[in-house]
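U., I forgot to send this yesterday:
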Amino acid sequence: MPHALIVDDDRNAAEALAELIANQGFTTTCANTVEQARDLLVTGPDVILLDLVLPDGNGLELLREATSRELATQVIVITGHASLESSIEAMRHGATDYLLKPINLSHLRGMLSRVARPPELTAEVKDLRSELRSLGHFGRLVGGSPPMQRLYDQLARVAPTGATVLITGESGTGKEIVAQTIHEVSRRRLRPFLAINCGAISPHLIESELFGHEKGSFTGANRQHRGYFERAHGGTIFFDEVAAMRRDHQAKILRVIEGKSFRRVGGSVRRDLYK
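Result:
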């Protein structure tokens, strides 16, 4: 049974969160300070749910300690004191994901479902990440030069997280191969990888293609259609040539990425990306 360590200075909030996580099949332990949590790291928790603001220090200190150890521990940062800088810093130091208070329980359940995976899958992914690296290979990528090794380091850090990744580079440099590599060395590797050429979809159809539509939502919508976001279902979507999209469509995609939910065209039900 997977084990969760909850670190929050609000005892009532920590206990309530522990009860929710226990219902997902986890054993739980609570700590209210950095020092208490540091002592409990030796138990090797599968996941740490970590508040950033603690009475005896910053949660980032504990995050750095947890990710520097040879443990298969994932860290989900949970805070009501969010900023862009703190979220970037948390991801840089190895946080798996980032949630704001009040916690969206659907998002949390989705994150925990990825933690509670079979041990053999954990080992398989770990082996894939280090596949032939000493010979200059990393997933689909080939190259042993220092710049390529630095790229491999970046991919190994970001692949285990739920972070959205921006891949830049000239045409033909292999951005899609990088995206596929991230997918294949991540926890999402058994789910779909969908690549979308944003410049090849008609502006009139792109919302339906991305979000899906309900039957009768517009002329010609003779049946319900599941879009890319729904078909990916826990996997990875690669948006190629996103700059070729109209800006209002880019804004809608950004809202989905930030809010982690969407609605089909003509629909009223919001669908969570983690479901």
